[in-house]
Design goal:
Elements (H helix, E strand, L loop, with lengths): L2 E3 L19 H7 L3 E6 L8 E7 L3 E6 L7 E10 L4 E10 H9 L1 H12 L2 H4 L3
Length: 126
């Protein structure tokens, strides 16, 4: 799988995609949801590379070869409503590349946790 989040100090990210982290709390609300994206088509090394930056609470930059486009998906989550006194369904929008990353990278995180837990260096130190 070739899909993942990038660090901004990486020089391989196209400059058209990079968004600066907004320091003013009043301007963060206006920046949320802003998306910059570039698709590299017909390159021999990286075919159909999609580079995108989505501003949530801070910029999230993603490089992907598996994503063919960027779309918004309507997702639903349960939130507690103080007015109703119970959990209610709330719809929200999420980019497909962020949703794909969130749903598919958990197995990598679990593998890292298991690897660290069963690491023999912790058990057999001299």
């Amino acid at each position: 799988m070739y899909h993942g989040v990038c660090r901004l100090n990486n020089t391989s990210i196209p400059p058209e995609v990079v968004q600066n982290n907004e320091q003013n709390p009043r301007l963060v609300d206006t920046a949320q949801g802003h998306t910059n994206a570039v698709i590299l088509i017909d390159d021999d090394t990286y075919p159909n590379l999609l580079a995108a930056s989505v501003y949530d609470h801070k910029p999230v930059t993603v490089l992907s070869i598996i994503a063919k486009s960027i779309t918004l998906k309507v997702k639903t989550r349960k939130v507690y409503s103080h007015l109703a006194g119970r959990y209610v369904d709330m719809d929200y929008l999420q980019h497909n590349i962020v949703d794909n990353y969130n749903n598919n990278m958990n197995s990598v995180y679990l593998a890292d946790k298991i690897h660290n837990y069963y690491c023999f260096d912790h058990w057999f130190r001299n």
